[in-house]
Amino acid sequence: xxxxxxxxxxxxxxxxxxxxxxxxxxxxxxxxxxxxxxxxxxxxxxxxxxxxxxxxxxxxxxxxxxxxxxxxxxxxxxxxxxxxxxxxxxxxxxxxxxxxxxxxxxxxxxxxxxxxxxxxxxxxxxxxxxxxxxxxxxxxxxxxxxxxxxxxxxxxxxxxxxxxxxxxxxxxxxxxxxxxxxxxxxxxxxxxxxxxxxxxxxxxxxxxxxxxxxxxxxxxxxxxxxxxxxxxxxxxxxxxxxxxxxxxxxxxxxxxxxxxxxxxxxxxxxxxxxxxxxxxxx
Length: 282
Known about the structure:
disordered N terminus; mainly alpha
């Protein structure tokens, strides 16, 4: 009766893991919704490339604040208004990017409390800085005022981009650590179960084969996550946008493959539990 209870408990645990497995690595590959919307605008209107902040460029050009030189006949007042509107649009775009990302980091359970609080505090500071720029933009009265604010925004833009990249790197690392920890824990539990069956004189060859397959799937997932991390690091320092996009697509594909390997691994555990249960009630 005791052995039967252990078997049922093992089945229940593995069944839950099999259900939760798809979300284990999937969160790493989540994309910012606002970034996706902006990218869609770019594809529909190539001329808007310089007007929007995209996942590819993630940049800000202070020189765009006054439009093209064809408007030389505009009065200073018109130029200042256009410059202010441009800067306010870009600041709002950045806030729409940073806000959801900050929420994502705050909800990331795989990060330690200290990591999460540190990253959220850093992002909060960036968000507050961009909010403060709105007041400074609205107070601008001359073309030089606009240029000064634009330079400040550009500098802060670069800093905030580095903050996001650093947070993304920590998220991937946290997911990897969680994967390794959980995989090792499950492998240990299965091995203990095999040892108990051996001690009671049971044939454990099938269980051992399944454990070996499980280990291979987890090892494959670990390797894919490691490779995804390498591609992400390389993308942050890519020399061209085309190279960066290629590396990021490669990262997403590797994370997807890792997710599938994890699902397969947990399905193997479920199969092992079902086989044992079936053998006990033949």
